[in-house]
Amino acid sequence: MVFWLTVLALTAAAILIGFRPMLRAAGAGTPDRVEDHEHDIAVYRHQLEELAGEEARGAISPVEATQARNEISRRILAVEDRLKAGGTASGSTSAPRSGVATLSLFALVFVPGLALVVYTGIGSPGYEAQPLAMRLEAMRDATAARNQTQDQLRDLVVRAEDHLRDNPDDGRGWDVLAPVYFRLGEVGKSETAYRNAIRLLGESPQRLSGLGEAMVTAAGGIVTADASALFDRALDANPSNARARFFAGLADVQIGQYADARSGWTALAADEGADMAWRTVAQQSLARLDETAPEIDTSGRPPVLDEATIEQMQDMSADERGSVIEGMVASLDERLRAEPDDLEGWKRLIRARIVLDQDDGLRDALERVRNAYEGRPEQLESLRVFAEGLGVNVEDYWP
């Protein structure tokens, strides 16, 4: 109740302040207007007398005196004209004042009424007030709850690790722990756990696609040949596996098969039976693909990790894996310096620089490939289409 009384008082004050100039204007024709005009005329006549005295003393020239006298006389005539019109104006004073009073009363009732109707319709009148301190406390509680959940999850991981240390052949334990590792950002441990689960329990679409996702993450977003094979096996076992379907489309994008990627992601986004998270990711990726990718397919496969390298990388950390991949890219870069007439090699290098977010390396590669194929517009156009299909505006690098 106090709140609404306060609102009403503030509204009334705002209306009075807003209509004050109108009320003042409406009251301008009060009876003392005649006296005000007569006072003005007396002042102007006194000015005429002083002007005559100054002219007689020679304090002002006759020309200046004439100009001043004319101006004062003009003002006297203007006041007399307003004085003659005063009778008519005073007769109409009551009407404006009455109109302004009616308008003020209408605003006093209508404005709060309209606010109440709108607030009741779209607001939350029954919602309890939440002071700033309370909201900040709620935010701190939510953050603490998230941190507590993470701590509890890590405690469970520690217990599971202790159990698996004593029972390394517990496939179910590895199967449960693998996605938890991935959620905590421990990609290398996640990959190891998936491999152990597959070794002990056998392949399943979830384990195969989970291992493939961990490998793609460890490779900096590159769908390697081995990861692509895992997704293919997962789809053979279960064609509706959403994670495998998404990464299969990503693999198509990375080798320039845009039509296949578009078809696969479109089907995944429209599949109401698929996991909503992967449907959303597919929709977002499809939107980016439609904006940047050309309608034609281009080649240019990513650097492929052989089985020996994959085996060596199994026990590496994510940083160590990244170093291996960057070393492969650097090796490809050096080979292209010696053998620049390799269109597919340039495409692999360009795509790798984009995936690894190496803008300086991308700029260097684009400048070199332009020099290598100077005078061969078809090859340059093919490279331009390929790069723009990956979201790069070549014109920014080819001045």
The biggest sheet amounts to: none
Overall number of strands: 0
Termini separation comes to 69 Å
Q: Can you tell me the residue ranges where pLDDT is under 50 for at least 5 consecutive residues?
A: 28-32, 91-95, 294-313
Mass-distribution shape: elongated
How many helices does DSSP assign?
17
Average pLDDT reading: 76
| Beta-strand residue percentage | under 5%
The secondary-structure class comes to mainly alpha
Walkthrough of the structure:
It is a single chain. The chain is 78% helix and 0% strand. With 399 residues, the chain is mainly α. Among the domains are: 121 residues, no CATH class; 90 residues, Serine Threonine Protein Phosphatase 5, Tetratricopeptide repeat (Alpha Horseshoe), CATH 1.25.40. Helix 10 packs parallel to helix 12 and helix 15 packs antiparallel against helix 16. The longest helix is centred in the middle third of the chain and has 35 residues. The protein is elongated, with a radius of gyration of 42 Å. About 8% of the residues have low confidence.
